[in-house]
Amino acid sequence: MPKIRILPKDIVVDVDSEQDLFAQLKEKGIHINSTCGGCASCARCTITVVEGEENLNEIPFEEKQLLGNVFHITKERLACQTKASGPITIDISMHEQPKKTSVVKRRKKEEVTKIISERIEKSKEKRKERPKKLGGSRKPRAFDYKDDKEFQDE
Q1: Of 21, 59, 116, 129, which residue is the least packed, with the fewest Cβ within 10 Å?
Q2: Count H helices, E strands: the chain?
């Protein structure tokens, strides 16, 4: 059974050479992103091969369609299409799940009503502080020349 070293966790795992890496890592509890479930249609299970690329199977047609034939440049393979026949080192740092740091604070109904009433009071105070607009709100009407004798024709 080939040994796979997984970075950045630095874990060593024994795998079967007949089964793809995605299914075996999933069985061992190691998270790899995927939306297709290992059918080679989403290209989200991409892993980076650090060492031992000579111990991998040949790139299948499905993988070439999704990633192209640039493995020799990027060293990226699909975990769902990769089988190991010897020791390899892979990097799965792009699949690490972010740790949840934010905590949702639940408030009681009394606290919520108190906060709302305080905000209403603040908005009322701001309205009182605003200076009153000067001037009328109506538009002035046009000057009427009919009543003025100077402008009438004689």
Answers
A1: 129
A2: 4, 5
- Tens of pLDDT, residue by residue over 68-93, are 888 888 899 999 999 999 999 999 98
Give the pairing of strands 88-91 and 46-51: antiparallel
Closest CA to 20 of 69, 85, 71, 74: 85
User: How would you class 47 by CB atoms within 10 Å of its CB: exposed for 0-12, middle for 13-18, buried for 19 or more?
Assistant: buried
* Topology (CATH) of 3-95: Ubiquitin-like (UB roll) (3.10.20)
Query: Does the pTM exceed 0.85?
Result: no
Task: Look up residue 57 and give its amino acid.
Answer: N
> Length of the chain, please?
154
Supply φ then ψ for residue 54, to 5 degrees. Answer: -70, -15
